[in-house]
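Our preliminary data section would be incomplete without showing what the modeling component actually yields. Below, a chain of 219 amino acids is followed by its predicted structure, encoded as tokens that our downstream tools consume directly.
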Amino acid sequence: MVRILVVEDEPLLADAIAEGLRQEAFAVDVALDGDAALERIGVNEYDVLVLDRDLPAVPGDEVCRVVVDSGAYTRILMLTAAAELADRVDGLGLGADDYLTKPFAFAELVARVRALGRRAAAPLPPVLDRAGITLDPNRRTVRRDGRTVDLSRKEFALLEQLLRAAGAVVSAEQLLEKVWDEHIDPFSNVVRVTVMTLRRKLGDPPVVQTVPGVGYQIP
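Predicted structure:
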């Protein structure tokens, strides 16, 4: 699951971008200014930053510089109304990975975000295989003991996180951060419910184990 921070000072546009990306199965947070963006970046790990260059107070250029200087793996897509070649060269020179001018086609934004998301972290293995479960991140397929398992997007993302942990315990908080976004209620039972439906779909014998007071694992 790719986690994105949208930084845009026009609330309607920020919400529209965020909602559209959520419909594409991304986990999305929103910041309306540079200060809020830096605060969220200091707390959360983001794969992609969709960054308006023209922000009040702390400008997008400064947010970009802070992220680049931190050495974070976060990839940066700058958004701006400035369409001149010199502006694009300047933005990329700050360390941004891509540059998109307003107005833009949403399909192009999604394609660019997907491309940056693939570059944000170390490549996934072509197939994750554990305890008789085979998950293909590229084809988005899951099989158990040769049987195809149909999962929802959240169930697939949760299973992927558990398999990537290679037997380690993953806390509910970590799953909330990776599979959902900051809008989810931290006291929600959504992780427990999703684990229950995932277990049911994977069938017997159960492979997702609960470690009381700690989290979940596939040993």
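The helical segments are 11-23, 34-43, 60-70, 85-93, 106-120, 153-164, 172-179, 190-202. The mean pLDDT is 87. Preliminary results of this kind motivate Aim 1 of the renewal.
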